[in-house]
Write a sequence for this structure.
């Protein structure tokens, strides 16, 4: 009796739940970020008020307070670029060989897509990434002293 109507209803509910969960997780992250910054500002404000009452001057807010959190996939990490390049290259090669063994050369070419992306990552690392890792500088090879290579991070070094 309910078997015929359950399957179409379930098929409609899957995308609805996926969209609601996706938006909900994004909103949860924004709310947690807001709450964290609010607590930091409250604590900093209370510390400043106590210092003013005692006659001690505190330095201004650090610029990191006004920056967002760095992205987990922030561009500019040479080690991550090298790792991604190697993983995609070998994954593409494995897919190519597996498809060639199973279906022949006709479908095996699809494995070269991730391999090509891996080669692009490795080329980027060879041309730009290793300079940043070795010298602590920018992508053009100039060194940056006292500045971090990732936004939202405190300066590293003298």
């Amino acid at each position: 009796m309910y078997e015929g109507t359950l399957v179409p209803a379930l098929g409609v509910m899957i995308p609805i739940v996926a969209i609601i969960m996706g938006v909900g997780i994004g909103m949860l992250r924004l709310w947690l970020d807001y709450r964290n910054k609010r607590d930091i500002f409250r604590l900093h404000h209370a510390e400043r008020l106590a210092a003013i009452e005692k006659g001690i001057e505190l330095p201004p807010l650090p610029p990191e307070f006004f920056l967002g959190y760095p992205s987990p996939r922030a561009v500019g990490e040479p080690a991550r670029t090298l790792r991604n390049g190697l993983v995609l290259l070998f994954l593409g090669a494995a897919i190519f060989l597996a498809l060639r063994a199973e279906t022949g050369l006709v479908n095996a070419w699809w494995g070269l897509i991730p391999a090509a992306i891996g080669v692009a990552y490795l080329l980027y690392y060879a041309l730009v990434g290793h300079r940043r890792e070795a010298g602590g500088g920018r992508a053009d090879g100039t060194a940056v002293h006292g500045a971090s290579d990732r936004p939202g991070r405190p300066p590293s070094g003298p």
